[in-house]
């Protein structure tokens, strides 16, 4: 199967959906546009004459933005589709938080999905200074459904073994191990102080081991890359949809909570450094996510002890994501401040904030409040 292009994707959609009884668009006259923004895969919006649309995503056997030199198995797409199915199988309520998949074509390693036309990435909203409370609560609840239904404490030995084997996801896990926990500290001159601090580097190694599944008593099926670039929101409809779970792992639930909260923290740093007025709204929304998550996890029977562990992990993973982004390894969520001096200062302060979250994570959310106070004090 060749890779799809804007010239071939319309015929492809017609061939896949033309005879579908509930096809969401009229396949007789279609137009396509490439959707840019993703790094790994090809994506297209395909529309009919009335504006009904679908989203098509195809995994090449390499990383799109690097090219064929960077080989990466196309099986990642099978896993992505499987995770969506797993979530719905485990909790029907999850269907409202994920886009509908119309067709998965294993031969092409492509899927055709509901087009979220009135949504935008949560990442965009946060950096525009919008953080709605209702969306935050939905996100907390959604993560709690994902994690509580697949938490190892709720599964028998067979269920745990199946999730561990199905979501080992070694290749993509190794990419995260390198890009979230290692590369930035090894190479960036701005990380010199951290690199030389063996106590700090031991803490990063500990978090890396936890990401890798070291704590066998606290594992859930996790999205695995749940920063705000993996969430699409429609403020007017109060709708939240989770996308792009190709990094899914049977791993520590705090990984997802920490990744999501890290974008709120980065957006806070971005706005606070520029004295924008939305800062308290962003922190409030972050707090709402955490509170809604805890409440729904408790209601689903996850013990207070486990929630204590998840809180500490969450702080660690917030710290890792904020630090690696401040060190330039996640451009889309970075502090894109025009004034270069202000930007450099804000990134240095964000790096410290991340390091504080990692070092003081045993204090839980209090560590985040302390790190934010430090960030603001260093202005
Ligand atoms: N169902 C959808 N409807 C409309 N737009 C979508 C939909 N799913 C994703 N998008 C848009 O397409 C972009 C790329 O999709 P996605 O993030 O899944 O691709 P990717 O190549 O796997 O990205 P990454 O490099 O983050 O792994 C998203 O950032 C989002 O803007
Ligand atoms: Mg992806």
Automatic annotation (TrEMBL):
Spell out the SUPFAM superfamilies in the cross-references.
Protein kinase-like (PK-like)
| Pfam families reported in the protein's UniProt record | APH
**Which residue ranges does the record assign to the Aminoglycoside phosphotransferase domain?**
33-264
Cite the entry's keywords alphabetically.
Answer: ATP-binding, Kinase, Nucleotide-binding, Transferase
Molecular function via GO: kinase activity
Q: Which InterPro entries match?
A: Aminoglycoside_PTrfase, Kinase-like_dom_sf
Q: Does Transferase count among this protein's keywords?
A: yes
Query: Family assignment?
Result: Belongs to the methylthioribose kinase family.
* Protein name (database record): Methylthioribose kinase (MTR kinase)
Q: Which organism is it from?
A: Durusdinium trenchii
